[in-house]
Amino acid sequence: MNTSHEQQASEQAAQERIKASHQLDGDAVRLAHYYSGWANSYNLDVDRDRYCGPVVVAELAATMQAAYMDENRAAMAILDAGCGTGLVGRQLVRLGFQLIDGFDLSEAMAEKARQTGIYRQVQSKVDLNQPPLGFSGASYDMTVCCGVFTLGHVRPRGLRELVRVTRPNGFVIVSTRKSYAEATSFENEVLCLQNEGTVAPAQCLNDGKYLDEEDAHYWIFRVPKTPTPQQTRRS
Ligand SMILES: C[S@@+](CC[C@H](N)C(=O)[O-])C[C@H]1O[C@@H](n2cnc3c(N)ncnc32)[C@H](O)[C@@H]1O
């Protein structure tokens, strides 16, 4: 049994590993390297920091399905962007979703997600900072993305690609850490997408619980009924 001193030290070490991941400047090689060393202890670390982002994102997906979509939850195709070890997938399955694909930059993280047995398929070495992704336009009913629009990871422009792969009338649900939202042009990207008509006016849950050290904003985007030319383009 850990003493409280040991527990404090473990929590601090976990927070330091989380913070260090924010210093990677969106550099794909550094990110992949960092996560390959972190994959084995990632779940334990974020659990120590009481990471609840995946629960919130999955619950929002379930709420949007219940409120606005006619399809049976179990038959809806969902893309988990930057799926990591599969924490969002676990929550989606708990809520009755079954057709879940994932992708991640890191092979080590993607392999952890595959090992959960939850995902239909998980692709690795997919870089959301280098669109287009190898997915056809409008191919998912919903796209979810948690913990990826974070400092040092994915630039705001990546949102556009998540919208492209989501079908008309589908939803994109994304978390942004507060520090990320403050330091980047994420809100400008949202405004551009709205002004172009690529997404309907977004809903945002501000300052939601995320992990101990920081809150996050949770964004809900709906893709309009009429597809934009960008969406009909095959990747
Ligand atoms: C903080 S983890 C979040 C993982 C998972 N979504 C979760 O909530 O636990 C961030 C993930 O984003 C992935 N990632 C970082 N940069 C990426 C990029 N440019 N394209 C795709 N995935 C990326 C990392 O490999 C890592 O698995």
UniProtKB/TrEMBL annotation:
SUPFAM superfamilies: S-adenosyl-L-methionine-dependent methyltransferases (SSF53335). Pfam families: Methyltransf_11. GO terms for biological process: methylation. The lineage of its organism: Bacteria, Pseudomonadati, Pseudomonadota, Alphaproteobacteria, Hyphomicrobiales. The keyword Transferase applies. Gene3D superfamilies: Vaccinia Virus protein VP39 (3.40.50.150). Signal peptide: none annotated. GO terms for molecular function: methyltransferase activity. It comes from Mesorhizobium vachelliae. It comes from the Bacteria. This is Methyltransferase domain-containing protein. Residues 79-174 form the Methyltransferase type domain. Keywords: Methyltransferase, Transferase.
